[in-house]
Amino acid sequence: MTLDEPRHLAEALRRRRYLISAWPWRALAYAVTTVPLAGVLAVGLFVVGAPLLAVVTAAQRGRPVALPLVVVLTVVALAAVAVAPLVSAPLAVVDRWRLGLVDGRPLPGPGVRGLAARYTTGAAWREVAYAAWLGGAVPLAYGMFALLVLLDVLLLAGPWVAGGTDRIVLGWTTVDSPRAAVPYAVAALLAVPGLGYLAGLLVAAQAGVARWLLGAPSDGPALREVTRSRARLVGAYEAERRRIERDVHDGAQPRLTSLTLQLGLARLDVPEDSPAAKPLAIAHEQAKELMVTLRRIVQGIRPQQLAELGLAGAVGELAARATVPVTVRAELTRPVPELVETTAWYVVSEALGNVARHAGATRAEVRLTRPDRRLVVEVEDDGRGGADPARGTGLTGLADRVAAVDGRLLLASPPGGPTLVRVELPCRP
Fold it and tell me: For residue 247, what pLDDT is reported?
């Protein structure tokens, strides 16, 4: 799968070419492998639940219920509850693997280790809830869909089935001739794509519940606090960055500029053969070099091009300075928050630096898009590929910078190329 393709079935369903892509077949594979698992669980739930439901119904209607039967059913129910965390564990492992058929996003592990944890952690009981849902709700949904498919097949076969003594009863009417069955067959044929989408929606809903129950980390409150803490740190860093930028730009930089001018004027007043001429010339050159260094420091805090040209213009300037030809395609129809804008600039700068240093590429392309509530930055080159964060190509630091603003970095770099770096940054209003 390339990075331009949908990452999961729910996203693929929104694409126009869904029915002629591989996603319907992946959904079918997920549904087919669901049937035996859900069937076994449904039988188990029926064996345990049906007698209990019958006893409860009889008691509600005032019918006598034998005490030994109540005791036996209670013991069976308690035993089922006690065994459920153990049974749901291998099921959860299988379904985490199956989820990859329709959802390519990483799924957090269960974080449940040891027998005691199977009974004392929320993650383990979420797996039990998933098993109950898979054996209870999923067979009902699949059964209703199977009835719709059976009805559609019956209508499609109507012109060949109806006639003579064979009739098709549809509830609101009866089809007793091939000619009368033709309109229904045409309607059934037109409904086939709708059934394809409906099947995709059904599987996407099932996968969404699986991801929700099986993917929730066991230390959710702690992770939420870490996320909030990281957001506070990023906000504090941004405020401090602005303060340093303002102090340097409005305080130190004008003074250094004035000092450089004064030294330049002093050089004009001092004869070249004077003993002070050489030290003064050296001091003047060092002051000018320090001005250049200070400008780079200020630019490193927040690139001046962003304030003057905006993200698209600043990226275009980076592309113009690159050592390989770079094409920039920017589709930014809405404004981008300043912190996200700065992060995106650094992403492009570091990625183009990697292209120049490591890729051996002859061209590169930068794409900036603003779908939904996020900014997507893509940098692609035709180099040798094989990029590996473990080899110190700057990708690890880049991923950390992206993660600091709650974004994510995706890398596709097969040996032989091409290399595609995709960064998704949330743009909160």
Answer: 63
In tens, the pLDDT along 231-256 reads 555 565 556 666 666 666 666 667 77
Give, in order, the Cα–Cα distances in Å from 195 to each of 13, 115, 147, 189, 256: 13, 44, 11, 10, 73
Please state, as a whole number, how many other Cβ atoms lie within 10 Å of the Cβ of residue 309. 14
Strand partners, 329: 367
Output the DSSP codes for 311-373: HHHHHHHHHHHSSS-EEEEEE--S---HHHHHHHHHHHHHHHHHIIIII--S-EEEEEE--TT
Domain, as residue range, for 270? 221-301
Q: Are 13 and 113 contained in the same domain?
A: yes
Q: pLDDT under 50 in the chain at which residues? A: 1-3, 218-220, 222-223, 225-227
Q: Domain with 412 in it: what CATH number? A: 3.30.565.10
Cα torsion angle, 370, 371, 377, 381, sign: negative
Q: Are residues 63 and 191 located together in one domain of the fold? A: yes
Q: Domain end: 266, 301, 336, which one?
A: 301
Same domain, 119 and 201: yes
Residue 356 and residue 301: Cα distance in Å, rounded?
23
Same domain, 34 and 128: yes
Q: Closest by alpha carbon to 142, among 37, 215, 212?
A: 37
pLDDT given at position 89: 83
* Judgement on whether residues 197 and 234 belong to the same structural domain of the protein: no
Residue 298 vs residues 54, 318, 338, 354, 415: alpha-carbon distances, Å: 77, 17, 16, 23, 38
Give the containing element (helix H, strand E) for 378: strand 374-381
- Dihedral over Cα of 233, 236, 240, 242: its sign: positive
The count of structural domains within the chain is 3
Residue 56's identity, in one-letter code, is: V
Distance CA 423, CA 387 (A): 16
| Residue 201 confidence (pLDDT) | 93
Provide the pLDDT for residue 198.
93
CA proximity to 59, closest of 45, 73, 47, 48:
73
DSSP 18: G
Q: Which of 10, 345, 400, 405 is nearest to 207 (CA)?
A: 10
My answer on whether 132 and 165 are in the same domain is yes
Bridge partners, residue 411, by sequence: 421
- For residues 105 and 10, the answer to whether their CB atoms sit within 8 Å is no
Note whether 287 and 263 are within 8 A (CB): yes
Total Cβ atoms within 10 A of residue 81: 11
